[in-house]
From TrEMBL:
The keyword GTP-binding is assigned to this record: no
Protein name: NlpC/P60 family protein
Domain NlpC/P60, residue spans: 21-143
Residue ranges, compositional bias (Acidic residues): 154-166
PROSITE patterns according to UniProt: NLPC_P60
Signal peptide: 1-24
Record-linked InterPro entries: NLP_P60_dom (IPR000064), Papain-like_cys_pep_sf (IPR038765), Peptidase_C40 (IPR051202)
SUPFAM superfamilies, A to Z: Cysteine proteinases (SSF54001)
Family label: Belongs to the peptidase C40 family.
Organism this protein belongs to: Paenibacillus glycinis
Entry keyword set: Hydrolase, Protease, Signal, Thiol protease
Source taxon at top rank: Bacteria
Location of region: Disordered: 147-166
């Protein structure tokens, strides 16, 4: 069963990250793709396991942007963005507990976002999926489009290439 699950996840990722997608071939895409399937670990901030804000913090750090490790804190950063104006790299926030912002992910384009799910680990989900659509709160642009272009697309500019967190 594990082999079948891995095959299904692999095929899903191939579909999501196909060459024609909005997010394909960027550095951010590569960082996220490498993390798909990483397990969920409460307060996790490394490739051994992530919680939702640990995942976003890790990805942004790989792109040269430091953000705090708490979804509520991350929700106060940058510029508020309307759902219809999302671009890859924007943070999307959800109320999954009934007590305000409690979950965060990274918009990757085509109505999808990457996040660390407590049940699936790092995965890609759709903003239109009923669970997330009902719980969506807001989005924030933490990186300017220029910063995104500088760090997300140019492999020679990757900060921390020699760093290891394992």
């Amino acid at each position: 069963m594990k082999k079948f699950s891995a095959l299904v996840i692999g095929l899903a990722m191939l579909f999501i990250f196909q060459a024609g997608s909005v997010f394909a071939d960027s550095k951010m895409d590569g960082v996220i793709k490498d993390l798909i399937g990483t397990p969920y670990v409460y307060t996790g901030t490394t490739t051994k396991g992530f919680d939702c804000s640990g995942f976003t913090m890790y990805v942004f750090k790989k792109l040269g942007v430091d953000i705090p490790h708490a979804s509520r804190s991350q929700a106060g950063l940058g510029k508020k963005i309307a759902k219809g104006d999302l671009i890859p790299g924007d943070l999307v926030f959800f109320n999954t507990t009934g007590n305000g912002i409690s979950h965060v992910g990274i918009y990757v384009g085509d109505g999808k976002f990457a996040h660390a799910s407590s049940s699936k680990g790092v995965t890609i989900s759709g903003l239109s999926e009923s669970y997330y659509a009902k719980r969506y709160v807001t989005a924030r642009r933490v990186m300017s489009p220029q910063t995104f272009e500088k760090y997300a697309d140019d492999p020679s500019d990757e900060p921390g290439d020699n760093d290891s967190d394992e």
